[in-house]
């Protein structure tokens, strides 16, 4: 059975991929949202270079959003922005985009590998199959590998992800929660620009209920206290690695 190894661009999925020892018959798949931190893309490039493992990269495109891709293409032709109760971005940018890519390769049945760790039990329980004729495996959970073990492993490598894990996936994803977003913006205020631009284009909706990214940036710039981003955790469960 063909193996599809979901590679999110972070250390956890990278370790899973290394442990699975993929061959040329396997598909290590990265679905790019277009909103990853620049150092995430560097990590992916380093991973391919140092591990000699090919990463298949794909990104969402749509006929109604010419010359755009990823998150920009998705929100450009939608009436409302995604938000916590209707986060269509995960389905469109990750699940459906992966499905289209695999079908373009003639792959419809496969074993699906996801990098949920032993300390990710809530995500494992909440996970639902995204494809028919697919069997899903969580190898890091089976090996009882947790976040600390992942971090320790990469201290032994020639390369590492040079940003806090909270900046993984979409850098200011609304699922990270308002307080976490404010703390990120204290360190990286420039990340707000594209999210503010989205909300300016969609005046009838915001990503976070009752508050805009422009307001979150203002709060961040008004507060002097800096919090360690290494300690930040998302407020809501995210399935973007699935």
Please tell me about this protein's structure.
This protein is α/β, with parallel strands linked by helices and about 240 residues long. The protein folds into two domains: about 5-165, HUPs (Rossmann fold); about 165-230, no CATH class. About 40% of the residues lie in helices and about 10% in strands. A five-stranded parallel beta sheet has the order 3-2-1-4-5, sandwiched between helices. Helix 8 (about 180-185) crosses helix 10. The radius of gyration is 18 Å and the shape is globular. The model has no long low-confidence stretch (mean pLDDT about 90).
How are the SSEs ordered, and which strands pair?
Layout: E1 3-6, H1 11-20, E2 27-32, H2 38-51, E3 56-59, H3 70-76, H4 88-104, E4 110-113, H5 121-126, E5 134-137, H6 139-142, H7 147-154, H8 178-187, H9 192-201, H10 213-222
Parallel strand pairs: 1-2, 1-4, 2-3, 4-5
Helix pairs in contact: 8-10
Brief account:
This protein is of the alpha/beta class and 242 residues long. The protein has helices spanning 11-20, 38-51, 70-76, 88-104, 121-126, 139-142, 147-154, 178-187, 192-201, 213-222, and strands at residues 3-6, 27-32, 56-59, 110-113, 134-137.
Tally of separate domains: 2
CATH superfamily of the largest domain: HUPs
Structural class computed from helices and strand pairing: alpha/beta
Q: Which regions have little confidence, pLDDT < 50, spanning 5+ residues? A: none
How would you write the strand order of the largest sheet? 3-2-1-4-5
Overall average pLDDT: 92
What is the 3D shape? globular
Counted beta strands = 5
Using only C-alpha atoms, the radius of gyration works out to: 18 Å
CATH structural class of the largest domain: Alpha Beta
Element-by-element helix/strand order: EHEHEHHEHEHHHHH
């Amino acid at each position: 059975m063909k193996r599809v190894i979901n590679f999110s661009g972070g250390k956890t999925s990278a370790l899973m991929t290394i442990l699975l020892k993929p061959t040329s018959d396997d598909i290590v798949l990265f679905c790019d949202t277009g909103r990853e931190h620049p150092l995430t893309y560097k990590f992916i490039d380093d991973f391919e270079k140092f591990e000699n493992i090919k990463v298949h990269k794909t990104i969402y495109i749509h006929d109604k959003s010419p010359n755009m891709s990823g998150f920009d293409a998705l929100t450009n032709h939608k009436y409302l922005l995604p938000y916590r109760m209707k986060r269509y971005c995960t389905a469109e940018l990750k699940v459906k985009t992966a499905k289209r890519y695999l079908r373009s390769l003639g792959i419809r049945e496969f074993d699906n590998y996801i990098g949920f760790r032993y300390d990710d039990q809530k995500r494992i329980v909440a996970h639902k199959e995204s494809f028919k004729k697919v069997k899903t495996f969580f190898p890091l959970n089976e090996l009882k590998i947790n976040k600390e073990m992942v971090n320790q492993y990469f201290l032994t490598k020639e390369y590492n992800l040079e940003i806090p894990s909270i900046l993984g996936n979409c850098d200011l994803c609304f699922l990270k929660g308002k307080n976490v977003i404010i703390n990120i913006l204290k360190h990286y205020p420039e990340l707000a620009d594209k999210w503010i631009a989205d909300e300016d284009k969609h005046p009838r909706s915001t990503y976070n209920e009752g508050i805009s990214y422009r307001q979150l940036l203002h709060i961040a710039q008004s507060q002097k206290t800096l919090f360690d981003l290494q300690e930040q955790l998302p407020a809501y469960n995210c399935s973007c690695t699935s």
